[in-house]
Amino acid sequence: MDLFNEVWGLFMMRWLHVISGVMWIGLLWYFNFVQIPNMGKIPDDQKPAIGKVIAPAALWWFRWAALATLATGLILAGWQGYILDAITLGIVGAAEDGFVIKHCAIGIGMWMGIIMAFNVWGVIWPNQKKALGMVQVDAASKKKAARTAMLFSRTNTLLSIPMLYAMVSAQNIY
């Protein structure tokens, strides 16, 4: 029965990690491939609906999905006993068990995810609050904040591709 509970628990944690990741990266790609490129096509009288309703709601799910993905991934790695090997890209484990390429691959994905989550909470969200008028700033600061948020969002989009590759490939390395 304990084996069932552990297997079920690991499955559920991995499922939560994947679901959170799909939400996070899906919204990231929505912002960068749909919303931002099409903002210029939206009539000015309709843009307040994006800035006041849609973007704040999407950003709420975006930032909490980032945190949930990071937390569930770290819990999963800790539970399965490879968190130190992954965080050190297999260097620490090499002394005891030999270098494990799977731990290095998942570690690369973990580090990219950590950087991306930091970008979400430390750069994108604080700047989006200014760009959307949730925090009052002058027009120049608002424009600068919008550009900073967009550039870090684009950076996360670029990082998401090798991050996903590292995460998926690690599951297929024996």
Provide structural commentary.
- This protein has one domain.
- By secondary structure, it is mainly α.
- 83% of the residues lie in helices and 0% in strands.
- The chain is elongated.
- The model has no long low-confidence stretch (mean pLDDT 92).
- It contains six helices and no strands.
Concise summary:
The protein has 174 residues and is an all-alpha fold. It is built from 6 helices and no strands. The chain has helices spanning 2-38, 47-79, 83-87, 91-96, 101-131, 139-170.
Separation of the first and last Cα atoms:
27 Å
Q: What is the global morphology?
A: elongated
Cα-atom radius of gyration: 19 Å
Q: The biggest beta sheet, please?
A: none
The tally of beta strands, per DSSP, is 0
Key phrases:
174 residues, 6 helices
Q: How is this fold's topology laid out?
A:
Layout: H1 2-38, H2 47-79, H3 83-87, H4 91-96, H5 101-131, H6 139-170
Helix pairs in contact: 1-2, 1-6, 2-5, 5-6
